[in-house]
Design a protein that fits this description.
- The longest helix has 25 residues, at 231-255.
- The chain is 39% helix and 21% strand.
- It has ten helices and 13 strands.
- It folds into two domains: 2-116 and 302-319, Nucleotidyltransferase, domain 5; 126-298, 2-Layer Sandwich (Nucleotidyltransferase, domain 5), CATH 3.30.420.40.
- The strands form three sheets. Strands 3-2-1-4-8 form a five-stranded mixed beta sheet.
- GO terms for molecular function: kinase activity.
- Pfam families: ROK.
- Belongs to the ROK (NagC/XylR) family.
Length: 320
């Protein structure tokens, strides 16, 4: 058996998987990402213990634990160097802490790469050799399979599309740069765009929904307002979709994938967001590369990261 874990900013999703990677059991526990690394790691350990208790097993029954972690990392050392989703989190030895506690091989990888491992094995990436996956959530993540192999790069940073420089004097990013793609195409970015329009004197029905407190706005509200014909919401979707399209066109020209998979919570906006993105891709990506690539939505839903972490755990176990 294997354990797959998706360490998210809000919840930790854990799954117990059989040797064939079918899901035996799954659960989620709060991350409490606004606290510190000790609290988050304690919550992670608690979730693993609950899987053991519920399924009447021990650590001896588990071959490998795989964990998807957002941000920069040293995979060989099992070290999470930096994660924009967590407070008081730097150089956390995630793999060592879990392997020491449970005496079980533990491996980590970037959260988007484990999502792609899952989609590649069981979802929208099956039987594809050149795949780009993009996840649109609080931030913007991406991962790349080229020639049937996951791409890592020299410092495990391959595929960081979210930090593609789009505006030289644009919005500041936690990475230290300005104008990164993820500062525009993400839940955080879309809400920033809404605020920019409000500051310019435009109006929206969304402010009535939150009694004028714009800090309470959510990305889901933008989709809802769009469906009710709100002009500002439609403009925000158009701007965000176009920005996304330019990012995808650059990625198609760079990676020449046969398939792009779009996942994450913001992707639930669907064609509200994707229609303008497709229009930009159609006019800005290289013709031969564009015609070789299709863009589809992810198959595995909100548990994709957990499943993919289990896939990754089995891969690393078989490498031993």
């Amino acid at each position: 058996m294997y354990i797959g874990i998706d360490l998210g900013g809000t919840n930790i999703k854990l799954g117990l998987l059989a040797d064939d990677l079918s899901v035996i059991d799954r659960l989620k526990v709060p991350t409490e990402s606004e606290t510190n690394s000790d609290t988050v790691m304690a919550n992670l350990s608690y979730g693993i213990q609950q899987l053991f208790i519920t399924n009447h097993i021990s650590a001896n029954d588990v071959q490998t634990i795989g964990i998807g972690v957002p941000g920069q990392m040293d995979i060989q050392k099992g070290l999470s160097i930096f994660s924009p989703n967590f407070s008081n989190w730097a150089n956390v030895p995630v793999a060592q802490l879990i392997s020491d506690e449970f005496q079980t091989q533990t491996v980590i990888d970037n959260d988007v790469r484990v999502n792609l491992y899952g989609e590649w094995q069981f979802g929208a990436g099956r039987r594809k050799q050149d795949v780009l996956m993009v996840t649109l959530g609080t931030g913007f993540g991406a991962a790349v399979i080229a020639g049937g192999k996951m791409q890592y790069g020299r410092s495990d940073s391959a595929g960081e599309m979210g930090h593609m420089s789009m505006h030289h004097h644009g919005r500041p990013c936690a990475c230290g740069n300005k104008g990164c793609l993820g500062r525009y195409v993400s839940a955080r970015g879309m809400l920033w765009t809404v605020r920019d329009h409000l500051e310019a004197g435009e109006t929206t029905i969304m402010t009535d929904w939150v009694n004028g407190d714009v800090s309470q706005l959510t990305a889901h509200m933008i989709s809802k307002a769009y469906d009710e014909g709100d002009p500002l919401a439609k403009q925000v979707m158009q701007e965000t979709g176009e920005e996304f399209g330019y990012g995808l066109a650059n990625a198609i020209n760079l990676y020449n994938p046969e398939r792009i998979i779009v996942g994450g919570g913001v992707a639930q906006a669907g064609e509200r967001l994707m229609a303008p993105a497709r229009e930009i891709v159609a006019t800005h990506a290289l013709k031969t590369a564009r015609e070789a690539c299709d863009i589809v939505m992810a198959d595995l839903g909100p548990w994709a990261g957990m499943i993919g972490a289990g896939v990754y755990a089995k891969l690393k176990h078989e490498e031993k």
